[in-house]
Design a protein that fits this description.
alpha+beta, BirA Bifunctional Protein, domain 2, Rossmann fold, five-stranded mixed sheet, 23 strands, RNA-binding
Amino acid sequence: MRLSQYFLPTLKEDPKEAEIASHRFMLRAGMIKQNGAGIYTWLPMGLRVLRKIENLVRYHQDSVGAHECLMPTIQSADLWKESGRYDAYGKEMLRITDRHDREMLYGPTNEEMITDVFRSYIKSYKDLPKNLYHIQWKFRDEIRPRFGVMRGREFLMKDAYSFDLTKEDAVYSYQKMFLAYLKTYTSLGLRVIPMKADTGPIGGDLSHEFILLAETGESEVYVDEKWMDMDLSGKDVFYKSRGQLDKFFKEMTSVYAATDETHDGVGAPANLVKTRGIEVGHIFYFGTKYSESMKALVQNKEGKTVPVEMGSYGIGVSRLVGAIIEANHDDAGIKWPASVAPYNVGIINLKVSDEETTCVCEELYKNLQAANVDVLYDDRDTNAGGKFADMDLIGLPWQVIVGPRGLKSGVVELKKRATGEKHEVSLESVMNTLTTDIKDITQGF
RNA sequence: CGGAGUGUGGCGCAGUCUGGUAGCGCACUCGCCUGGGGGGCGAGGGGUCGCAAGUUCAAGUCUUGUCACUCCGACCA
């Protein structure tokens, strides 16, 4: 993409409403525009990142046998009356009426709806297990939205729902998701720690929050120092091997990690680290809470009708955009992990009016595109300073800096955004370095 | 919802106390210079001062109401 043709409204100054780094940088880097409290437009650059995250989440859900569907944003109140949550949910639920005065709502979550989908078709234990998920916009009318997309009212969420005959099977489904979650976060370039969570009003007795450690995190967390250098990727674990998965799950959940709410000091190790974190996922086993009230029943082997065992598994996709920035930035801007970067490489043309410089840039731009590298080419006819600043701000993993000075000796500058390392390299080796690096990324998950 | 603030050109702000020509920086347009970390000179365009009533000869400024947004708290992915 040529920057001169693109829609990338970067801001030089900090918008006054943005307090934390991710919010500030998302506004400044032209990723989002606020339309109301906790409601945002995703501009082209922001949308690219959102989509990349979404696709990685999707990939890992599919990998453990979950099936994607897409449920509506607007739901009928009837289902919620059935489950009893229409009254229980309170003001967070945005309630609306249609022209016939029917009670509707903008979905804050989808347990009722998915249960209704399930019960309409599945009647036998032979059709179990099933896991259905969707990635959809939700709305919760938070009292006080804040921190940009980290705590918006409208947000993109992946929600999966598992259906099993027995509790034992439901636990297996839970563990599969647990594994998928760790793989997902690893692919996003994040270290995320599973923590035993309070099951709250939803009930059930098995629940984990997935917490990204970050100083600007919303809640205090207490973790065993061991987590800091543990392998969290689950890369050697195959979900179909139930024994292997169970062993992995037990390993991961035996090391101490607790949020503020669940930390009581009991069983805490000596080498406890107190830090802060951002919740980027939450999984629940809740048994028959909805299947009983909503009559999602199947017949078991004995011909007896029983409610299905359910679990739900959420990942805040839009929130992750902010969370990733919280974990990956410096004073100048964002430092995208390669797998979610909006573009892999940015080319900076330092002097558009210089024929050779522009010629080299064009050539490089063409070649990188031909090599399947997502490249953003800053071909704007402006001064260098602004280009450097913008490129650092938007945080692409690699920058190729091309100017007359270097070209005199046949080199360009290659800069790695994450570390700030800069090297003068020949044109040929630029192509090599970049295409090899990109290949590594795309094979990474 | 309790507490605290803010609404003035696209963005960031001054002007409001003490009513009297609506201003600054950046951005934008045109021209020239410049060209390796937000550059320089010159010439321009753009604002019913959130909205509505009221007081006044006169309201960005005073009064009342209202809306929006932000921050702290309780709540939450």
